[in-house]
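Ticket reopened. Same input as before:
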Amino acid sequence: MAVNNQPIIRLTNICKSYGDTQILKNINLELEAGKFYTLLGPSGCGKTTILRTIAGFTDATAGQVFFDGQVINDVPANQRQLNTVFQDYALFPHLNVAENVGFGLKLHKVAKAEIETRVQEALKLVQLADFGDREISEISGGQQQRVAIARALVMRPKVLLLDEPLSALDAKLRKDMQYELRDLQQRLGITFLFVTHDQEEALAMSDEIFVMKAGEILQGGTPVDIYDEPINHFVANFIGESNIIPGKMRQDFEVEFVGKRFECADAGMRPNEAVEIVLRPEDLDIVAADQGKLVVTVDSQLFRGNYFEIVAYDNDHNEWLVHSTNPADEGTPIGLTFDPQDIHVMRLNESEAAFDARLERYEDDDE
Amino acid sequence: MQRKQKLTRNTAYFVPYTLWIVLFVIAPVILLIYQSFFNIDGQFTLGNYQTYFTSSTYLMMTVNSVWYAFLITLATLLISYPTAYLLNETKHPQLWLLLIIMPTWINLLLKAYAFIGIFSQVGIANQFLSFIGIGPKQLLFTNFSFIFVAAYIQIPFMVLPIYNAVSELNPSYVNASRDLGATPWQTFSRVIFPLTLPGVKAGIQAVFIPSLSLFMLTRLIGGNKVITLGTAIEEHFLTTMNWGMGSTIGVVLIIAMVIIMWLTGGSKRRPRKGLTK
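Engineering reply: fixed in the latest deploy. New output:
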């Protein structure tokens, strides 16, 4: 097989509208072979529509879908070399587990003996080796989920599309499946495109995440990039929990908020530009009130198991969320400290391209 | 205590239904079976059954009835399945369904007479045939017109159960099938049809069984050229007054219906649970 760097899937200027409602607005996307990608966004943001466009279940109103360098807009779904795991699994109720998994192979006129071995292999892969003879109605939701994955993987697709496949499972099972899916993807080296509205799921599994809102991709990047440097208010809020405070950029590497100036790690804005500051709750450390960079009063706290979630207010009535391993006393003032690099400054209405360019510019300046 | 009370109250709900069944289903069937063991002179005999199963006329009639019922059911199915399927794709399926059901509100006799008008020598059908140059043809009193009108009358009873099955079908099954490489035809034959089979079976039951005993249409539209068991029963009860023989044919028909129900009821090995999910 020739090694090439061309993306396995590329979407260029994909638009989709039903009547007057625009579902997708000019989507551009590139997926490299062998990586785990996630489309993340609230329900109705168009992430499933992107998946369906790639799978061939819906046609884009405009734009092109490339698969392995070829435009596949006009290739019907049954001739595309990719498979889908559906949100409701869509296992055929009139066929048993093995017949479901073998369905696609049978259509492709694969020899009977080979079907049998490949079905068995696929079932083993999802740890259901002895379940071939079971009826779909006899197995649990988690097992149905695995059958759906086996049914797609047995086709040896180049790309596997997963449409919120874990949303119907309970919390414990979902966590187990996250590990298993990630493990499967790395072992098989297949490109996964995973759709979810669960940010934890996205952060845990993906090589790269695309955060979507209202038919647009707001930001794409590794989980760490997106978590540490969200491009705007929406992304910061959607990925993890954050304290988002209005501020002013005094000069490069100096920002002012809640009436004080702080050293920070961001640059490239206009002097005195209005910005928003993100401080993650886990980056805030509690110290004595006279030693803190900020002084806040504890309002309430919840015990979350591995940490305390503390809600506090400063003198300007800004709410501060703090995650701490130690409890605080309600009603008492505490000091908060943080490092300059914990402060993340966001410009208002900055596009992803401008954001990336700015980041590159001032990071180069550092060297 | 409370449970017992509830039980008696629940049993009370069954009284009207049980009464109905006993009075209008069980009692008539018993009477029919009883009647079938008496000859025209009122003497107890097995002769009616002997006559039935040895007479080539009756046996031919039976074959004829089954054959025509089969043709009517087949024609109805071939029209109804695509109709039900397309109905499900339309924007207002309930409206179309209503239009399909509406003819059942009209009395069967009226519809039969309407078709006599349409198929007569000077009827609309022949006017159209003349217009396109095929010329007037004998349409009424042919096997074709009999099957045509019978199928027309039965279509709503076939469309309804199939439509229900089709509309319950989860559309993601169709996508899953395409996703796994199935052509539209393969998707239909391997996924859609097997999953809507319960509706088809229900439709066949609702059409085939009444078609076995059609009698009015055989006379009005078929011109008595098609003699079915239904016609024979009518003759025995109303013309020859041989109620015993008429009852015997009735019993044979009931047995035939039970067999059809049993055949199309099918094994419930695969529960349909996932279908509505």
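The interface with chain B takes residues 55-57, 76-79, 83-84, 86-88, 90-94, 103-104, 107-108, 135-137, 151-152, 155 of chain A (CB under 8 Å). The first helix of chain A runs from residue 47 to 55. Please confirm and we'll close it.
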